[in-house]
Amino acid sequence: MHVRDYTPDDRDACLAVFDSNVPDFFIAPEREDFAAFLDALPGPYLVVVDDDGCIVACGGHAVVPETATADLCWGMVARPLHDTGIGLLLSEQRLRRIAEDGTASAVSLNTSQHTRGFYERLGFHAERVTPDGFAPGLDRVDMRLVLREQDDVVASDGS
């Protein structure tokens, strides 16, 4: 397995990964939103490629400079490969890139109750849970990970 940057040639394979996760993790109408996202990426997007050259996972992030926050975007692993460590590999790569960039002091995401525990194990904390927030039976969980405390306001003497 290796992780690399997304290219437009990966679009259909990423859509297939999405499709494998409907209806348990995504709802079918979100496919159009995901396709539009892939066509106009707001930031880095990664794919995980298996030893046969197949894309088995994808996910990215976008930094919001005004809030010093990076949002994790559209992370997913092909359904038959859940619980194999691929999601951890992808998430660690995304978080590493965010930390290396140095722009964000926190990372946010929204996910469902099904993956909440996964992100909690990575250090994220739930800030809000909206029952049926994505669809009936699919709650929305807004989560946050603090990478570093935001810099204090510059002292009045300029130091």
Describe the structure.
By secondary structure, this protein is of the alpha+beta class. It has a seven-stranded mixed sheet, sandwiched between helices. A hairpin with a 2-residue loop joins strand 6 and strand 7. Helix 1 packs antiparallel against helix 2. The longest helix is centred in the middle third of the chain and has 16 residues. The protein is globular. The N and C termini lie far apart (about 45 Å). The C terminus is likely disordered.
Brief sketch in words of this structure:
The protein has 159 residues and is α+β, with helices and mostly antiparallel strands. The protein has helices spanning 11-20, 30-39, 86-101, 116-121; strands at 2-5, 45-49, 55-64, 69-77, 106-111, 125-135, 138-146.
How far is the first residue's CA from the last residue's CA? 47 Å
- What general form does the structure show? globular
**Average of pLDDT:** 91
Structural class: alpha+beta
By DSSP (H or I, 4+ residues per run), the number of helices equals: 4
| Low-confidence region ranges | 152-159
Compute the gyration radius: what is it?
17 Å
Largest sheet: 7 strands, mixed
| Proportion of residues in extended strands | 25-35%
- H/E element order: EHHEEEHEHEE
User: Helicity range of the residues?
Assistant: 25-40%
Cross-sheet strand order for the largest sheet: 1-2-3-4-5-7-6
Counted beta strands: 7
